[in-house]
Design goal:
The chain has a two-stranded antiparallel sheet. Strands 3-4 form a two-stranded parallel sheet. The protein has two domains: 39 residues, no CATH class; 107 residues, Rossmann fold. Strand 3, helix 3 and strand 4 form a beta-alpha-beta unit. The protein is an alpha+beta fold and 183 residues long. It is built from four helices and four strands, in the order αββαβαβα.
Length: 183
C-alpha cells in the first residue's frame, strides 16, 4: 500500500469475490479473492456503485492457474467506465479483464510478463472473440508460444454496444472484417 500512496493513489474500496470451493489451505481454507479499488486525484464516486461482494463462478482454470471469471469484472467496469473508455490491466494473465472490457465496448490495454499467458490472452481476444467464458482452448503450439501485444488501441477497433444487463448477454455481432489487420 505504501507504493500506491507514493504514486498518488488512495484506497476507496475493497471488493471480495467469495468462492464456493477452497483453492488451497494452510491455516485457513482460501475461499475468496480480493481487490482494492484505488483512485487518484479527486475522482467522483460512480453514479451506480458496484457491490463490494461479487460472487465467483469457477472457470476450471483451463487458461491460467489463477484464471478469473469474466463476469466478476462486469459490474466494476460498468460502474467506472463508459463505452469507448480504456481499461488497463497491468497483470492480465489470460485476459479475463480485457475480455470483459471488450464485451462492454471499452478499449483495453493488457500487460503480462509471462510469454505463454501473454500469448493466451492475445489468442483469446483475437482468435476467438466469441469466447466469453474461458472455454477450453486448443493452441496448435501449446501454451509456450509468443504473440504480439494485446491492445485495442488501433484505428480499426470498433467497440461493441453496451448491453442493458451483464448476466447472460448475447454475444455482440462482429464489428470488423475478419481480414482486418491485427496489431
Amino acid at each position: 500500500m505504501a507504493a500506491w500512496k507514493k504514486a498518488g493513489f488512495r484506497v476507496v474500496g475493497h471488493v471480495v469475490f467469495p468462492k464456493k470451493y477452497a483453492s488451497g489451505a494452510r491455516f485457513t481454507e482460501y475461499r475468496h479473492e480480493q481487490a482494492y479499488l484505488l483512485t487518484k486525484g479527486n475522482a467522483a464516486p460512480p453514479r451506480h456503485p458496484p457491490p463490494d461482494v461479487i460472487p465467483w463462478s469457477y472457470t476450471g482454470n483451463r487458461l491460467h492457474p489463477t484464471q478469473k471469471p469474466v463476469a466478476i469484472f462486469n459490474p466494476i467496469i460498468e460502474a467506472f467506465t463508459k463505452p469507448g473508455d480504456t481499461v488497463f490491466d497491468p497483470f492480465c494473465g489470460s485476459g479475463s479483464t480485457l475480455v470483459a472490457a471488450r464485451d462492454l465496448g471499452c478499449h483495453y490495454i493488457g500487460i503480462e510478463l509471462d510469454e505463454a499467458h501473454h500469448g493466451t490472452a492475445y489468442w483469446r481476444l483475437k482468435a476467438d472473440p466469441e469466447d466469453h467464458y474461458g472455454k477450453p482452448v486448443a493452441l496448435t503450439t501449446g501454451f509456450n508460444h509468443y504473440a504480439p501485444g494485446v491492445s485495442s488501441d488501433d484505428p480499426d477497433f470498433q467497440p461493441a454496444p453496451r448491453a442493458a444487463k451483464t448476466a447472460f448477454r448475447r454475444p455482440p455481432e462482429p464489428q470488423q472484417s475478419p481480414t482486418a489487420p491485427v496489431r
